[in-house]
């Protein structure tokens, strides 16, 4: 298969509708500007892949882990990332409406300037030491239901009808209890004053 200048397998600008990618590891593949509607990725890991400006309607990621993956300016609805580990994933400037981030773990990832209308982050765990950033994102009707999160930045977001409930079930086992609570307070302070449910 052809490779681009960075040595990635080049699947850019292709119509890959309804394809099924299956394997142990999918690594160093560029899907730049490709049509991935109704595609399923079924593997242990996706690493070092580029989905910049791809169309990702109804894509299902049945993977244990996505690592060092770029979704900048990707667009789609009903994308399913449930039960994945998202490690160093860049979603900035993407439009992922009504998407599913249920029961996933996220580290060192970025959601700045995203349009996430009606997406669900149910029982997600945000495990990064540094804050998870949603700066300037449209979070209308987004649901963070029973999430574990202690650091985050929602500055300049649109948060109408956003719901945020935090799971405190392990808070008393946290060695740095004061720091944990202070981080949550700082995160909540970044939320705008428009309509939301906390």
Note down, in words, how this protein is organized.
The protein has 198 residues and is mainly β. It is globular, with a radius of gyration of 17 Å. The chain has one helix spanning 177-189, and strands at 9-10, 20-27, 29-30, 40-47, 60-70, 75-77, 85-90, 95-97, 105-107, 125-126, 132-133, 143-147, 152-153, 162-166, 196-197. Strands 2-4-5-7-9-10 form a six-stranded parallel sheet, with no helix packed on it. Strands 12-14-15 form a three-stranded parallel sheet, with no helix packed on it. It has a two-stranded parallel ribbon with strand order 1-3. Helix content is 7%, strand content 32%. Strand 14, helix 1 and strand 15 form a beta-alpha-beta unit. The mean pLDDT is 87. It folds into two domains: 1-70, no CATH class; 101-198. The chain contains one helix and 15 strands.
Strand arrangement within the widest β-sheet reads 2-4-5-7-9-10
Q: How many distinct beta strands? A: 15
- The best one-word shape is globular
Helices and strands, in N-to-C order?
A: EEEEEEEEEEEEEEHE
Low-confidence stretches: none
Distance between the termini: 50 Å
Main sheet, how many strands, which sense, barrel?
6 strands, parallel
- Taking Cα atoms only, what radius of gyration do you get, to the nearest Å? 17 Å
Helix coverage percent of residues? under 10%
Please, how many helices?
Answer: 1
Kindly name the structural category. mainly beta
The total domain count is 2
Mean pLDDT value:
87
Oligomer: single chain
| Percent range for β-strand residues | 25-35%
Protein name: SopA family protein
Organism: Escherichia coli O8
InterPro entries: Pentapeptide-BTB/POZ_domain (IPR051082)
């Amino acid at each position: 298969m052809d490779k681009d200048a960075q040595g990635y397998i080049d699947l850019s600008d292709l119509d890959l509708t309804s394809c099924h990618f299956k394997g142990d590891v999918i690594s160093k593949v560029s899907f730049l500007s490709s049509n991935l509607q109704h595609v399923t990725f079924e593997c242990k890991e996706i690493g070092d892949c580029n989905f910049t400006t791809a169309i990702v309607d109804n894509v299902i990621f049945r993977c244990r882990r996505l690592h060092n993956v770029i979704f900048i300016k990707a667009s789609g609805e009903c994308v399913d990332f449930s039960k994945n580990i998202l490690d160093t994933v860049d979603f900035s400037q993407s439009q992922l409406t009504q998407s599913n981030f249920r029961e996933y773990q996220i580290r060192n990832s970025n959601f700045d300037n995203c349009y996430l209308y009606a997406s669900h982050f149910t029982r997600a765990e945000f495990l990064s030491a540094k804050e998870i950033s949603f700066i300037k994102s449209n979070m209308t009707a987004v649901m963070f239901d029973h999430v574990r999160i202690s650091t985050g930045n929602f500055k300049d977001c649109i948060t109408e009808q956003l719901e945020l409930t935090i799971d405190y079930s392990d808070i008393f086992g946290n060695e740095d209890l004061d720091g944990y609570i202070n981080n949550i307070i700082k995160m909540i302070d970044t939320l705008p004053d428009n309509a939301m449910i906390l």
